[in-house]
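Training component of the fellowship. As part of building independent skills, the fellow (R.M.) carried out the full modelling exercise for a liganded target. The chosen ligand was LHQ. The inputs are recorded below so that the supervisory panel can assess the work.
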Amino acid sequence: TVLTDLSEGVLRLTLNRPDKLNSFNEALHLALRAGFERARDDDAVRAVLLTGAGRGFCAGQDLGDRDPRKASGPPDLGRTIETFYNPLLRLMRSLEKPIVCAVNGVAAGAGANVALACDIVLAAKSARFIQAFAKIGLVPDSGGTWTLPRILGEPRAKALALTAEPLDAETAAAWGLIWKAVPDDALMDEAGALTARLAAGPTKGFGLTKRAIHAAAANTLDQQLDLERDLQRDAGRSADYAEGVAAFLDKRKPEFRGR
Ligand code: LHQ
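Fellow's submitted model of the complex:
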């Protein structure tokens, strides 16, 4: 259910249930989690590219599994969230390597918020982001209620969440929700090239940079300045820093090893 390919430091994870618009069932969850665990544990992985097979990126939870008329009692969605979605989101957020998302088509419900949890999001111009939860009486999950107001402010966050209206890729980019909207036929080339570039970069420094930016949400400026000092101390001891400066002085391209 997830195609996995490691090449030149890029771990490409392709959600692969195209006839269901790559919606999440248990198997997809477990396979995607395994992919991100590999990204965390395997030094050969230096960047991740997440995308979807077929015409959609991901339509959120597979509702085919969720017919209330076939259930014996009320569902415990909290358990689903705790068992599947939250571990995935925590794993993605804590990964100290860059995650690029190529949103190839519609991203709805949890599918939209999983995309928005990636570090750099490129979307095909035809792609749409839909906070579909409201249509079935649910609350945006997978970090949506955290991400959307932070990036967009409450007015746009609430309008998207309460109306479930689709947001097109160009508006998402104009609002700062994603990095770029790109022509459909250029998406995979552009996302692939960007991820390859990141995979050849100073992975250790990238990881520390992500940590600093993530910490900022909960820090005062004073705390953040202290954190920057500590992280820069670490980064300054990396082989890639030594290589970066040496390459600059030699007027050549650096060869980063990721440590
Ligand atoms: C699907 C789905 C889908 C199954 C398309 N499931 N088959 C967390 C905890 C626990 C429970 C609940 O949820 C959550 C978090 C969530 O993610 S809640 C939100 C769940 N997702 C949605 O509500 C989105 C439902 N899908 C849609 O609204 C539309 O399919 C979108 C807007 C994504 C795409 O529309 P279209 O481009 O018109 O495609 P389509 O609707 O024709 O879908 C194509 C096929 O994919 C179709 O199957 P079929 O056999 O008729 O060709 C759909 O039934 C299937 N599909 N989403 N979530």
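The panel noted the following from the submitted structure. The first strand starts at residue 2 and ends at 7. Strands lie at 2-7, 10-15, 47-52, 56-58, 99-103, 106-108, 120-124, 128-130, 167-168, 180-182.
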